[in-house]
């Protein structure tokens, strides 16, 4: 691993200090391209207006007319956290605006992804047949599904954020900032963000018509906790607009304006909603919602998120917690098997990984791909046999390699190999011919060798340099915890060399290392390195994050070590 320090534009840092940002934080922000304090502030006034999103006004008009007529609306959601929160935003928003609306979530194993003909057929057989289908976090690639809906006399309104293909579905209206001709500046917006903008535009359209929400106190900001949750969990790029959306949603949650379901999920994950951070979402709440879509059905997740009753939400959150435990066990077993297969293949010079296990669980391949990618630092696909006999898989990439574009190229070079695919730069999913695994492995390796360089295969840890002893304090750890960090706007990582005053293993299996580090002549700080193997150190060089340890009700600073290099080993007396 190569460790570098981020460049800090001094002029930007000084300007931020002059605007009231603490010097400690100003350097961190400046190193991430921030030049004005408004770029990191919460509030709807710092969010891009909905008017810049193509077709959002037209969709608001269609929905307003449907509400006035009493038409039945049906939301079709994706089965991940972004899809679940997008469905929650659309359902909560439409209901408070007086719509006759329900939702339906495809089953990953039965219907496949998105608005497929099979889920359209199921929607058409509902007791109350929909006049409109509204997709959230899906639909932009559902050419066949939209055609099936049209044939049944059901109009489709697509809200999505995924990259469009060459052919768009023949929907009544499409809102997607990544479609041609859309000038909306925040291209990385999550599916839940798109759903929020549609409800925002609809709220204003109905107000212009003299129609009021069913709840007089309703404000569009009330939906932003869902936007914060889905945006962070979907690991989309945190550009200025997404940061403002997330920051505002988090502020509402911490201030007690937290939806009952989100609060229940936070507590199930051992988090305090009044102290919720982006890390708590990414590693606590998000996985519990995603587990439902991976192993069972996302209906449970959406019911939890939208439940107004604490008892029911707590009950559903406990169910999701149990499903997540099952997901973790499956995941660890699959990771072990995948790494074993990779080692057996013994292709140490490979620039890509595409590993296949016929009996692996289809719902967990994406998260396993992510873990394998993190370990071996190569573009990675994990593949398994689907119920229809074909091969399904999910991929994760490294910076500098666009996974969706790579699949585009493979599809051109090997016609018929990819039956279906889609995704982003860093993540993608696909369906292969049953006999296509080996061909895909070779094709992926070829594209990787064409488009990557050896430098890109060398993992780089960008840090924010060394901290002064006085900056190593619990107040700074608290400050960083309250701020928005994530994809494209990474949490600060610092470096330093320290003498070790104490080192001991910790955890049930003694797999982790707890250290006491000397910081200056009269100051010591605790640190922890998870999954440490190797020598017991007497002096270390580390890359670390600031954290708050509140074990036993007493708060103290703790360094969470991302990378540890032993400079001197502890020598025990004979």
Primary descriptors:
574 residues; Diaminopimelate Epimerase, Chain A, domain 1; five-stranded parallel beta sheet; five-stranded mixed beta sheet; 17 strands; RecJ_OB; exonuclease activity; nuclease; RecJ; DHH_sf
Can you walk me through this structure?
The protein has helices at 10-18, 23-31, 56-69, 81-96, 117-124, 143-151, 191-208, 224-233, 240-254, 260-268, 278-295, 299-306, 310-345, 365-376, 403-413, 437-451, 474-482, and strands at 2-5, 72-77, 100-104, 132-136, 155-159, 173-175, 353-356, 380-385, 391-396, 418-423, 427-432, 460-463, 494-506, 512-518, 524-529, 537-549, 556-569. It is of the alpha/beta class and 574 residues long. The chain folds into 3 domains: 2-39 and 461-569, OB fold (Dihydrolipoamide Acetyltransferase, E2P); 45-257, inorganic pyrophosphatase (n-terminal core) (Alpha-Beta Complex); 347-457, Diaminopimelate Epimerase, Chain A, domain 1 (Roll), CATH 3.10.310.30. A hairpin with a 5-residue loop joins strand 14 (512-518) and strand 15. Helix 3 (56-69) crosses helix 7, helix 4 crosses helix 12 (299-306) and helix 12 (299-306) packs antiparallel against helix 13. Residues 73-206 form the DDH domain. This is Single-stranded-DNA-specific exonuclease RecJ.
């Amino acid at each position: 691993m190569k460790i570098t320090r981020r460049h800090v534009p001094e002029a930007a840092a000084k300007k931020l200090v002059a605007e009231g940002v603490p010097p400690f934080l100003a350097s961190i922000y400046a190193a991430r391209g921030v030049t004005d304090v408004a770029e990191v502030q919460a509030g709807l006034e710092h969010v891009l207006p909905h008017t810049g999103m193509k077709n959002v006004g037209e969709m608001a008009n269609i929905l307003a007319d449907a509400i006035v007529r009493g038409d039945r609306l049906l939301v079709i959601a994706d089965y991940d956290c972004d899809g679940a929160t997008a469905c929650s935003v659309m359902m909560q928003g439409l209901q408070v605006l007086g719509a006759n609306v329900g939702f339906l979530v495809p089953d990953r194993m039965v219907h496949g992804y998105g608005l497929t003909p099979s889920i359209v057929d199921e929607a058409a057989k509902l007791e109350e047949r929909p006049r409109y289908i509204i997709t959230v976090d899906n639909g932009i690639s559902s050419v066949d599904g939209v055609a099936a809906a049209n044939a049944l006399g059901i109009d489709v309104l697509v809200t999505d954020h995924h990259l469009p293909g060459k052919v768009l579905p023949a929907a009544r209206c499409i809102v997607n900032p990544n479609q041609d001709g859309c000038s909306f500046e925040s291209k990385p917006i999550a599916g839940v963000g798109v759903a929020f903008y549609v409800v925002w535009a609809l709220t204003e359209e109905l107000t212009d018509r003299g129609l009021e929400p069913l709840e007089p106190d309703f404000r569009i900001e009330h939906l932003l906790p869902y936007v914060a949750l889905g945006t962070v969990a979907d690991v989309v790029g945190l550009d200025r607009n997404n940061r403002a959306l997330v920051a505002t949603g988090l502020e509402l949650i911490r201030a007690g304006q937290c939806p009952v379901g989100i609060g229940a999920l936070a507590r199930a994950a051992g988090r305090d909603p009044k102290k919720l951070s982006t890390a708590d979402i990414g590693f606590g709440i998000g996985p519990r919602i995603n587990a439902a879509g991976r192993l069972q059905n996302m209906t449970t997740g959406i019911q939890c998120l939208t439940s107004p009753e604490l008892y029911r939400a707590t009950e559903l959150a406990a169910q999701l917690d149990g499903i997540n435990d099952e997901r973790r066990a499956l995941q660890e077993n699959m990771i072990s098997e995948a790494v074993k297969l990779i080692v057996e293949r013994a292709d140490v010079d490979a620039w890509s990984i595409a590993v296949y296990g016929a009996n692996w669980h289809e719902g967990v391949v994406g998260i396993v791909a992510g873990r394998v990618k993190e370990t071996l630092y190569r573009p990675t696909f994990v593949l398994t046999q689907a119920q229809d006999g074909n091969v399904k898989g999910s991929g994760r990439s490294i910076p500098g390699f666009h996974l969706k574009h790579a699949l585009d190229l493979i599809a051109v070079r090997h016609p018929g190999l990819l039956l279906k695919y889609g995704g982003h730069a860093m993540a993608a999913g696909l369906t292969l011919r049953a006999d296509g695994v080996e061909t895909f492995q070779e094709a992926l390796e070829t594209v990787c060798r064409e488009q990557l360089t050896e430098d890109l295969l060398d993992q780089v840890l960008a840090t924010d340099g060394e901290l002064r002893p006085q900056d190593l304090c619990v107040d700074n750890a608290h400050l960083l915890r309250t701020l928005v960090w994530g994809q494209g706007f990474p949490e600060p990582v610092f470096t330093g060399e320290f003498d070790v005053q104490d080192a001991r293993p910790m955890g049930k299996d003694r797999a982790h290392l707890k250290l006491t580090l000397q910081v200056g002549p009269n100051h010591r700080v605790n640190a922890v390195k998870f999954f440490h193997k190797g020598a017991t150190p007497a002096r270390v060089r580390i890359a670390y994050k600031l954290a708050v340890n509140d074990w036993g009700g007493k708060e103290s600073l703790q360094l969470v070590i991302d990378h540890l290099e032993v400079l001197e080993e502890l020598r025990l007396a004979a």
